[in-house]
Amino acid sequence: MPSDKSAGEYDVIVLGGGPAGENAAAYAVAGSARTAVLVEPERLGGECSYWACIPSKALLRPGEVLAGARAMPGIDPGGLGVAAVLARRDAFIHGRDHDDSGQVQWAADNGIDVVRGAGRLIGPRQVGVDGRTLTARHAVVLATGSRPNIPEVPGLGAALPWTSRDATNMAEVPGRVVLVGGGVVACEAATWLSSLGAQVTMLVRGNALLAAAEPFAGKRVADALTERGVVIRFGAEPARVARRGAADTGEGRIHGGPVTVTVHTADGATELEADELVIAAGRAPDTEELGLESVGLPSGHLDVDDHLAVRGVDGNWLYAVGDINHRAALTHMGKYQARVCGDVIAARADDRPLAGPRFTATADHRQTPQVVYSTPEVASVGLTEAAARRAGYPVEVVETDIAVAGSSLIRDDYSGHAKLVIDTGTDTLLGATFVGPDVGEQLHAATIAVVGQVPLERLWHAVPAFPAVSEFWLRLLEARRAGYHR
Ligand SMILES: Cc1cc2nc3c(=O)[nH]c(=O)nc-3n(C[C@H](O)[C@H](O)[C@H](O)COP(=O)(O)OP(=O)(O)OC[C@H]3O[C@@H](n4cnc5c(N)ncnc54)[C@H](O)[C@@H]3O)c2cc1C
Ligand SMILES: NC(=O)c1ccc[n+]([C@@H]2O[C@H](COP(=O)([O-])OP(=O)(O)OC[C@H]3O[C@@H](n4cnc5c(N)ncnc54)[C@H](O)[C@@H]3O)[C@@H](O)[C@H]2O)c1
Fold it and tell me: Which residues form the FAD/NAD(P)-binding domain (predicted)?
């Protein structure tokens, strides 16, 4: 019997219309008569489409193309036209109002209803939205993402600093920027802000950029940022912030007068003045208003099993996908979890067994691919050497500079480095990291080798085309042979 939608009854209710929520809904109803509703207070498409992945990559690409052109004899590049770069970014985010009508149409085409508003659990299988109660026959999926972590620093909140939403949606380029953080958002934002003309100072509390990556990756990104004029202050944290005339002038506009940041380092305190302060200090779960207490759960990241069902809730009706479960806070991994979750919901609704790998998320434990679109790019999958050793694997590593015919043909200034982390017990790859221009496009071969557990002896027979950048795979395998003197 179909669910009674007029009474607010659906087979599947999904809170959050970001990439994870959209995919969970679509997979849960695909090829069936099941009904689903996406509950979304802002825009279908979520953070990724309008304030994160898409605008940031739209802002980064022109600087990368310009750098490549400048390294190519015979091309006489002028520079970046800021207005044109921002206009192209705006086209990708469907205008500054973030028109999501295309996504709404996609939902309709897939038989998914959309309810605008913030959803809240009000009991088992029950969701409240603006005074209306929705009831799920099979599943509720929480996919409400994350919000920026704003450190508790005196004066910081009152200074109305930029978050990643302002930086990706910037409407004007601040002359001087202090950027707090040394992670992925900070490295990417420093790259596009500096390529668009801002003088950027990064405050990094640790002693490396991209601290979770192979150390050579953060070092190469730091060197490149420094070369383009970014000042990086390691071991530095904001201790106090003051701003004259702080004003909410709108997303991506400079929020008032100059900001003074008192910076703590091991050597004492100094003061920096900037036109804008950007906070890129990680993400926090946004669960305080989700009503988790109504089903006996504490606030914070949700703990899920490998079918994406929330642990601590009986009856297999509550699931969590994407940033909210903190397994791998990346769009492609949230979508991966959502595909598994949707398939699990569908199978359970049909009383089918969860037989086969399709119903179990595994890649987001130790096989996660990621590309940091800084200049140079950092592409990685799986475990770093340090993480593999911590996990107790018997480890061998091979490294090589990416200096092959293909790379030198692509850019005269090509500089890159590659590293493989090998489990000597099984002769398979645990992880790989590549740094260099456009190495993101090289990553999927490594992901397939890691997930497919392809023995290195077999990889020898995967012959890279000549003269392609991917020939560095051959160099890596040769370096390993040379290490064995065979
Ligand atoms: C600047 C930046 C750049 C990034 N670049 C990349 C990248 O290049 N590649 C990559 O893989 N990842 C990138 N990420 C990470 C990526 O954006 C997230 O991992 C991804 O958006 C998570 O998807 P999600 O569906 O879990 O959450 P979100 O995209 O955050 O969507 C969650 C949705 O839930 C809605 N919501 C919130 N509360 C409620 C509620 N109570 N009821 C209903 N709905 C609610 C929100 O409005 C939102 O639309 C980037 C992040 C940032 C900040
Ligand atoms: N290309 C991509 O794949 C991409 C791009 C952007 C963001 N993302 C994802 O979005 C998420 C958020 O990125 P992010 O860069 O904000 O987080 P992150 O965890 O990568 O980096 C956070 C940085 O903030 C610093 N920090 C944390 N708390 C601080 C404090 N109180 N004071 C000063 N510094 C502090 C950390 O030391 C670190 O340098 C990550 O999961 C990231 O992978 C992915």
Answer: 10-336
